[in-house]
Amino acid sequence: MTTEATTTFTTYEDLLAVIQPATGGRDILDPATGETVGQAPQHTLDDLEAAITAARAAQPGWGALSHEERSGFLNRAADAVEANAEALAVLLSREQGKPLNGPNARFEVGACAAWLRATASFELEPEVLVDDESGRAELHYRPLGVVGAIGPWNWPMMIGVWQLAPALRMGNTVVMKPSSMTPLSVLGLIHVLNLVLPEGVLHAVSGDRVVGNRLVEHPDVAKIMFTGSTEAGKAIIRNSSDTVKRLTMELGGNDAGIVLPDADPVAIAQDLFWGAFINTGQTCAALKRLYVHEDIYEEVVVALEEVAAQMPMGVGLDEANVLGPLQNKAQYDIVAHLVQAAKDAGARIVTGGNPDPDRPGYFFPTTLIADIDNDNPLVAEEQFGPALPIVKYSTVDEAVEMANALDVGLGASVWSSDKETARYVAARIEAGTVWINKHGAVDPRVPFGGAKASGYGLEFGVEGLKHLGQPQVISY
């Protein structure tokens, strides 16, 4: 096997062979079956130090390239991902649990290539601020240096690319720490990208929390990009403060959707379903609490139940499945606890709610829960799994007040046959993104970031590039 752009891995086992340690390592288990997928290296603080040193040494040369030259590398990296797409997708399915089909593993790998190409295409020219008889002032963006990227386990490859692509495009070098739950997916992706990227510009360190904390604290790391829980984000903010690092924090959400009384329940049911249950509900900006007007409440509940019945859940390598297991036991327990809280309060289980204790893997059935109070834990806390509470409301003011009541605000959505009315309601919701008649539809051209405790900083598009650069004004 050669390290050229044309290198392809025929199977995921071939890819595993080059990323696993020769000896030792930590077993990674398939959450659908409990079988061993492979062994993840257990990198140490010394390994992290070596990666940061190498990234720092490579940065001046990488940063000296033009935007066009760096974009060329990103496009070739996208070619490499596409050439190895099936091996990457199977590895992802086995480690994370998501099925190959539907908006899942193959979709995620395709999104990696698409995001690389989109990021390569953005133009970022100096902005002329003043140009008159008093003089001229220009706003430029320079590389920051070494960027540390800490990723999650739910979309490990795609969110990894969301972090590394703009960082590299802006002339930074990158040290990535994947989640300890899904390290193999990210290590495999980084190996494929490094088939075409210059040596030293991109590194992955698969370590524990001690390694992650050191990455955050390290004086030679200029910026941290993090996607994960609000509590973990708060710890990163504290631990990075002594070095005054730049931060992009995409933190937890509990996205609300508001269905207005003029919506067509059948027409919106499928999009509502995937807004909530994409990646089996394990998505930061998934629809996690649905508010439906009393006039169409039962119609929406019935329409969602009919869609849910058509969506098979099972082992990801079975081509028929579109929903998979929860990725880990801790998340399974959270979902089970919150669903039980809804049952204990007398909420109506429309479908699901009773996992099979004899089934292997962390499968929790697709669950719709109606007639639930807004203060029930399933509504007030982020479930991050396949259980959607559906809350009835009487007035739009009431729905907006409930949607805004929590301290998070990553995304939200409004569903209506009247887009102008929907836009008016959307403007009243406290969230970084509000979609109309869709939910969670991120676009590499459109900036994305949270409000309130869902984080700060923007990703995607030209604005996302700017957050990976040091603003510099030249005035003369």
Automatic annotation (TrEMBL):
Q: Which SUPFAM superfamilies match?
A: ALDH-like
Q: Which domain of life is it from?
A: Bacteria
Similarity comment: Belongs to the aldehyde dehydrogenase family.
Record keywords: Oxidoreductase
Q: Where is the Aldehyde dehydrogenase domain?
A: 27-471
Keyword Oxidoreductase carried by entry: yes
Name the catalytic site residues.
E250
Name of this chain's protein: Aldehyde dehydrogenase family protein
Species of origin reads Citricoccus alkalitolerans
Q: Name one Pfam family in it.
A: Aldedh
Specify whether Oxidoreductase is a keyword of the entry: yes
